[in-house]
């Protein structure tokens, strides 16, 4: 049986302004899940993931992280288990060189000097950022800045990696690198939770999609299931990936199997 590592039970979150962003969410996230959370602006995606590492506390209900209530765990302990890459790297980066940025979290989590060096060397090589190690991160171009912000979290290898809009502002090589990192993390048994409006990327890089609408989870399943659920897509105001839309147009309705990538599309149509 798969290990449930995050569970929300009747999770409600009301901000001090009176906005109720989560209206009783029940969700189980399993080890090695490759999840995307999707939904229109303001549907509660960021609010829910911020409960997974204790950045936000429930107004009512509970969140269990590795079986333990998040209100009973220290923020530092939870941050070690659940790494969070912010949507905007400028909100995450705080050191004056890339090297310091990459070393900050491992040192903070008690890695020895040797362990920190090994962790940083690995991530630098993986993400090919040797040439900017002594640069001030805020002077980098947006894609590199984003890559540094991901690398600074990857360096301590959290069990769960949350990526908030990871493709926003990334160029094509950046997207390719992101995919490589996600695949590597999944291969090594980690769990990925990505928030995204980029349905083309979501379709090809998730095993499970959670659809949110107005503070509730309105669907949860494989990309094949979600992108053929016209009612849910309409309710959550989500457009399927462009290639899926093209197939729906050619089929003149909903086919039995969703086409989620260009290679799926070519396979389906090449002999017609
Ligand atoms: N710090 C806050 N204070 C008050 N209200 C907030 C705060 N953060 C979010 N909200 C409100 O909570 C609701 C859910 O917001 P949230 O950011 O979780 O949605 P989202 O799905 O992540 O949106 P987006 O796709 O725009 O990032 C919205 O109505 C939003 O205005």
From TrEMBL:
<dbReference type="InterPro" id="IPR050095">
    <property type="entry name" value="ECF_ABC_transporter_ATP-bd"/>
</dbReference>
<dbReference type="GO" id="GO:0005524">
    <property type="term" value="F:ATP binding"/>
</dbReference>
<feature type="domain" description="ABC transporter">
    <location>
        <begin position="6"/>
        <end position="239"/>
    </location>
</feature>
<dbReference type="GO" id="GO:0042626">
    <property type="term" value="F:ATPase-coupled transmembrane transporter activity"/>
</dbReference>
<dbReference type="GO" id="GO:0016887">
    <property type="term" value="F:ATP hydrolysis activity"/>
</dbReference>
<dbReference type="InterPro" id="IPR003439">
    <property type="entry name" value="ABC_transporter-like_ATP-bd"/>
</dbReference>
<keyword id="KW-0472">Membrane</keyword>
<dbReference type="Pfam" id="PF00005">
    <property type="entry name" value="ABC_tran"/>
</dbReference>
<keyword id="KW-1003">Cell membrane</keyword>
<keyword id="KW-0547">Nucleotide-binding</keyword>
<keyword id="KW-1278">Translocase</keyword>
<protein>
    <recommendedName>
        <fullName>ABC transporter domain-containing protein</fullName>
    </recommendedName>
</protein>
<dbReference type="InterPro" id="IPR003593">
    <property type="entry name" value="AAA+_ATPase"/>
</dbReference>
<keyword id="KW-0813">Transport</keyword>
<keyword id="KW-0067">ATP-binding</keyword>
<comment type="similarity">
    <text>Belongs to the ABC transporter superfamily.</text>
</comment>
<dbReference type="InterPro" id="IPR015856">
    <property type="entry name" value="ABC_transpr_CbiO/EcfA_su"/>
</dbReference>
<dbReference type="InterPro" id="IPR027417">
    <property type="entry name" value="P-loop_NTPase"/>
</dbReference>
<dbReference type="GO" id="GO:0043190">
    <property type="term" value="C:ATP-binding cassette (ABC) transporter complex"/>
</dbReference>
């Amino acid at each position: 049986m798969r290990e449930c590592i995050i569970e929300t039970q009747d999770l409600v979150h009301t901000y001090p302004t009176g906005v109720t962003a989560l209206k009783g969410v029940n969700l189980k996230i399993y080890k090695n899940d490759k999840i995307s959370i999707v939904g229109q602006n303001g549907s509660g995606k960021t609010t829910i993931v911020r409960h997974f590492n204790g950045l936000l506390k429930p107004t009512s209900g509970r969140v269990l992280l590795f079986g333990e209530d998040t209100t009973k765990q220290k923020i530092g302990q939870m941050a070690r288990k659940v790494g969070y890459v912010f949507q905007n790297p400028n909100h995450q980066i705080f050191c004056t060189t890339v090297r310091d940025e990459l070393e900050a979290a491992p040192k903070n989590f008690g890695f020895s000097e040797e362990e920190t060096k090994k962790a940083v060397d690995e991530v630098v090589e993986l993400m090919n950022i040797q040439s900017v190690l002594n640069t001030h991160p805020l002077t980098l171009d947006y894609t590199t800045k984003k890559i540094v912000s991901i690398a600074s979290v990857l360096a301590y290898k959290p069990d769960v990696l949350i990526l908030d809009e990871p493709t926003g502002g990334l160029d094509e090589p950046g997207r390719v690198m992101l995919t490589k990192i996600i695949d590597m993390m999944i291969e090594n048994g980690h769990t990925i939770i990505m928030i995204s409006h980029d349905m083309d990327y979501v379709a090809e890089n998730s095993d499970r999609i959670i659809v949110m609408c107005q503070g509730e989870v309105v669907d949860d399943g494989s990309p094949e299931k979600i992108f053929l659920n016209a009612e849910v897509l309409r309710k959550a105001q989500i457009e399927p990936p462009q290639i899926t839309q093209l197939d729906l147009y050619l089929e003149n309705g909903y086919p039995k199997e969703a086409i989620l990538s260009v290679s799926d599309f070519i396979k389906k149509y090449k002999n017609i």
